[in-house]
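Our collaborator T.R. sent over the components below with a one-line note: 'Predict the complex.' Nothing else. No constraints on interfaces, no templates requested, no preferences about which chain binds where. So this is a plain run: every listed entity goes in together, and whatever single assembly comes back becomes the starting point for the next discussion.
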Amino acid sequence: MLILAQLEEVPRHGYEIAARIGDRSGGLVQFHAASLYPVLYRLERRGLIQGRWVEKPAQRRRRYYRLTPAGRTVLKEQRRGWRDFLSGMQRAAGFGHV
Amino acid sequence: MSDFKATVRSRLPNLGLPAERETEIVEELAHQLEDTWRSALDQGATEEQARQQALAQIPNWDDLAREIRAAQVPIVSHAPVRMAGFLDDLRQSVRTLGRDSGFTLTAVLALSLGIGANTAIFSAAAQVLLRPLPFPEPERIVTLWENNIKDGIERDDVSPANFLDWKQASASFDAMATSNPWSFDFIGESEPEKFRGALVSESYFDILRVQPTLGRLFTAADHRPGRNNAVLLSHGLWKRRFGGDHGVMGRALNLNGRPATVIGVLPPDLDLRLHGLAEEVIAPQVVSESWRLQRRATYLKVVARLKPAVSLEQARQEMSSIAARLARELPVENSGVGVTVVPLLEHLVGGVRPALVLLMGAAGMVLLIACVNVANLLLARGVHRQREFAIRMALGAGGMRLARQLLTEALPMAALGGLGGGLLAFWGLRIATVQLGADIPRLEEATLNTSVVFFAGALSLLTALGSALAPAVRVHRAQLQDQLKQGSRSASFGVQTLRTKSVLIVLEVAVTVVLLVACALLLRSFWKLLNSDPGFASERIAVLQQFIWRQYTTPGKRLIYGTQALENLGALPGVEVAGLVSATPLLESSMDSSYPAWVQGEPPPPPGQERTAFHTIATDGYFSSLRIPLLSGRTFRDNDRADSSRVVLINQTMARRFFGAADPVGRGIAVRYRHAPVVYEVVGVVGDVRHESLIDPPRAEFFQPFAQNPSGAIIFVVRSSLDPEFLMSSMKQAIWKIDPTFPFYRATTMETLVKESLAGRRMQTVLLGAFAFLALTLAAVGIYGVISFAVAQRTHEVGIRLALGARRASVIVMILADGLRLAAIGVGLGLALAAVASRALGSLLYETSTADPAIYAAIAALVIAVAAQACLAPAWRASRQDPLTALRTQ
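Returned assembly:
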């Protein structure tokens, strides 16, 4: 879900995805290359994301991943699941509604 | 910076993907490292530090390669690539098992024991009960017996005249033949030796349809009177006594004082057990006219081969109607005599079937318990890893993929369990064949048979897969948030899992209780048997049997021989008393004969309705050496001679059955041997003795003095002050002083006979005991595991209780109560099951009720005690924990 969420707006390459997750979670969630790329390949295989080589002027080509329609649906489902779970946790743990 | 590409290429193991794709992946990973490196430089790191940081992105290149390989498996898959994933799983699971050696060892051991016990028992059972006999169309071979339902006799030997009538009148059989137990005194170069054997009538081998290993079988000419000097040797005897020498063919052996020509050697594996032990020498039976006259003497075994179109049932019906006709025509001899037709295989193994089935059941239960344990272990691990799997699923791993990984983890365990089980079975079977080969027909040739090995393989695979499947299925079905909800930071487990495990434990305890009850019943029965009073003393008694009819043809000669032999024996130092008898307890080769009898003065009952009694010939010394008590009257005296009045001693059972409460001493008893009854005066009553086995109730028996009826079948019974084994050879020498060419049919001790008669039961009890012990141990391990698991789950709760001031003792009690509740439910269920299942034991028990409440109570107490023991350690641990640590675990 975390990865899918990073691709919601624009296609991104691997390093960018990992960096964004790290930044947005305030450093709590860190993805190393060792765990990131296998997951990316698996998501790609399952048709949730699609990778494409993009060449930009003055840069070497990079592989950008974008969300497929199927990926979008899965992301929505997973978001709902996590939201339910988290709000349940919050209520149970007594943090009150956020 | 392009040198990261080179780094990645050199470090990343070959992925086995198309070159183009591989290049892409290398390039992408290189970008990643390069970006990391650049960002580290931006943040002020040195060149070297930045490089280190970049490389730290990928701590283990092998793992990465594996992950990528697995991720690259297309959804519409090609088999080879999927196989690669499978091999990876397998490799990983072997590593996991290696790391978790305690778990692996427990599981493998449990599986090995369960599989080993099953493989061995089922191999033996397949060998003994199922393997066809080594004859063509063996199912058509039957044995025929006289029966007498009224007297409770189901299978008795057949009289020659009845055999001739059956053979003539029946149309169901291709051929019918007799076998008559016979012994052959062999005088060779060394000590005279007795060979066991049989005389077989014409067409005996046509029924079996066997081919000789050497030479030929009997022809019709061999059965003609005066021409019957050919003999066949058993394969065993040929090997043992003649060293497998082909030159034995055509040799004339001195058998029973006449020359007999060896015409052939029989194939191995030809043991019909018609006469208790395998025959060593077979000679042709001459069927003479005298057979027509022998209607009451039953001593023949009859075998026949059914015609192809005739069923067993049809043959039975035909034989019944023939027997009914004979009973009508010959009421004196044949009233009440029927025919029992039994397939040969059934005759051979019918007796051991209940014990084997019992052991198969017990082995099955042990396997069940082993499976439950392994399932419990795998469940616990599966639960432990559910969160790991949930996270992997959240990150996109397929459910099937994870389930497959769990299943492949079960594989190496199953393989090890199967291997261990195979080895145990191999050893177990070796021991069993050596220990029991002589007692259980056809067991000697038992080996692990291939189908059983496959059976064990399949069994171990199924067990492990089945056990792995539960958590695997759960993971596959898992709702993500459920998994994560149940997950806690340290250990993860679900209430549902605990419930599954509890059910398994209850089941395990129940099965254990069933096994223990069965074992306890057998033990009790065995103990009773050991302590049952056989009616005679067996310590320091030598038993030496000879058959002397052929050499000592008249009663006078036999009397002189017997008296002289007893004198020689009595003169030996160490000998306390020597006696002589025609039939001793527990000796299979004893000549037993029973005759109709009634009290003199009463009207003789109509033929076929008389009570029968066994006729034994003895000297005084028989009673004193075996310490058989004289209850009233006197024993034999020197002046009870051939020419004095005929006297008998009767045993207690006969006194009760024939005279009731009246005193039999001085009364007369009439016995019908052939036609006219013979009357004896009862001079005394002696104690009962168990004859056939230590279980059979004593039989009505009367004893005639040897002096009045010198029998040709004699057994010397000698009580000594020393171990009779030491004296055995000097006893033989003392008897050989009279005739050095005269062999002993059997020379042994009474204690050996007692031991032999108990051997089968001892082994049964020992095996079942071993299984029950195994079951108890496995159940204890299972209970321990589940309680530890439950305690770990409640660590937090216990911590709160302790923090709130609960006493440690009450924590122990609480946890004990949890475990014992499970055990109690299991015990209750087990006792109920045992009460039903133990009825199947009935025929194997001796004077032991299957509903003995003391046994049930004792087993319940034992299992509860073991369960308490298993709960104690986890309970103690829980109560000793530091409340703060406990609270922190949540």
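Summary for T.R.: The CA atoms of residues 596 and 612 of chain B lie 4 Å apart.
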